[in-house]
Amino acid sequence: MSVDKKLDNKVITPVAREVDQDRAERAIRELLEAIGEDPSRDGLLDTPARVARMWTEVLSGTNNDPDHHLSKTFDIEHDEMVLVRDIPFDSMCEHHMLPFFGKAHVAYIPNGHITRLSKIARVVDAYARRLQVQERLTDEIKDCIQGTLNPKGVAVVIEAQHLCMQMRGVQKQHSSTTTSAFSGLFMSDEKTRAEFMNLMK
What we know:
Blueprint: E1 2-4, E2 6-7, E3 10-11, H1 21-34, H2 47-58, E4 72-75, E5 82-93, E6 99-109, E7 113-114, H3 117-128, E8 131-132, H4 134-149, E9 153-162, H5 163-166, E10 177-184, H6 185-188, H7 190-200
Parallel strand pairs: 5-8
Antiparallel strand pairs: 1-4, 2-3, 4-7, 5-6, 6-9, 9-10
Helix pairs in contact: 1-2, 3-4
């Protein structure tokens, strides 16, 4: 049986992000001038509009409530781990506004009901499509699933490459960063956590 989660008798729905396109275009044009470029030259004529549209797309998760992706659940007596591996994502580092990207591995132990597997991936995307840091992204995915599905535990591991480390600063092109976040049985039961880590391999 499917269950629609509701808040104040209303089904949770997404909140669309709105970007002031004209203001964004003006800012990008100003940036081009500030770095010594000529926004009126042929190759840059449409760049402010293109970049403004690009930011709308890559930051589409801002002001969006990812909980709505988990609003529909299915009652089922399954109490073993559910793991969705290798979920690709891309995000924007809030420190330098450069991309970071990689894979998320998300598991939960149901507590009487499950959600569609695709919805786990949508939660990852909803949080990734913001100005982010990898550590917070990991925690937000874990907290969303724990708070919405109320499972017996959640585990999230993210592996990512950061262009802010590869293109600038230390310029370590082949470096990667791994973060993790656990709740419930994944925190309290070493065997459960070990099973998750083994399944990831």
